[in-house]
């Protein structure tokens, strides 16, 4: 089988696939149309987020047996159309779930303890102890929306903090010893922290909007290490201004380009984003929750293992 690699990844990916007998080609620079002109020569290809895999691209790939996405989600692929062509879709959420869980926890603890604000002040010669008094996670109710690989990882890491972890998921019976599954209504009644762990789908697009936010009984802290387009930023900003959202840790933003490699799809900085970058109770990171030294290797290994299991 011939495999085309469209993004650079950990070296073990190429090395192990070669050892398994696959023929591997690399093309990290050609345009999408140039790739379309030769994709019919390949049985599979491996991509991160370089460009979207749409119907036109799939139709050109007449011999395609699988698409490997070195990442957790498949939103850059027309999955429904690929299924009609019996193309196997391979993702690797197992590879970066631990990293995402840790990053979610890091954002939450940093917000609770005002570490971003305190660090800046000390660097500027300010020693403000009372103004930087934090709050404890101990005893809080943490609500997870989405309880797949990422949600389960976060819940597992919360176990030592004496919190009550509850989750909502569209799939039934996904709760476990780390997290109790509840209805969305119950989560909105009880949660003091809300952490998103959902894929990007039609159901999750603009999910966190003003109507969704106002249904929470308590003021809450928001963590998003999932997908930026699940959140309507201007509505979150209004909730931050009113105090309904006490603080936000955002690793992803709705303004990201589809490749996740650049922030803005438009040149003008949105007003809502201007508010976020000037807010002391907001922490931002550039879509790196799953982006660790270890996860780079684990993501590649997961893809190799799944290809091996299916095609060897």
Task: Describe the structure in your own words.
This protein is α/β, with parallel strands linked by helices. The protein folds into 2 domains: 2-91, Rossmann fold (3-Layer(aba) Sandwich); 97-284, 3-Layer(aba) Sandwich (Rossmann fold). The protein has 12 helices and 12 strands. The strands form 2 sheets. A 7-stranded parallel sheet has the order 8-7-6-9-10-11-12, with helices on both faces. α3 (55-60) links the parallel β3 (44-47) and β4 (66-69). α1 runs parallel beside α12 (293-311), α5 crosses α7 and α5 (93-112) packs antiparallel against α12. 38% of the residues are buried. The model has no long low-confidence stretch (mean pLDDT 96).
Describe the structure concisely for a colleague:
The chain is of the alpha/beta class and 312 residues long. The chain has helices at 11-19, 32-38, 55-60, 79-84, 93-112, 115-123, 149-158, 184-190, 210-214, 233-242, 271-277, 293-311; strands at 2-5, 23-26, 44-47, 66-69, 88-90, 141-145, 164-168, 180-181, 193-196, 220-224, 245-250, 282-284. It has two domains: 2-91, Rossmann fold (3-Layer(aba) Sandwich), CATH 3.40.50; 97-284, Rossmann fold, CATH 3.40.50.
What are the salient characteristics of this protein?
five-stranded parallel β-sheet; Rossmann fold; 312 residues; 37% helix; 12 helices
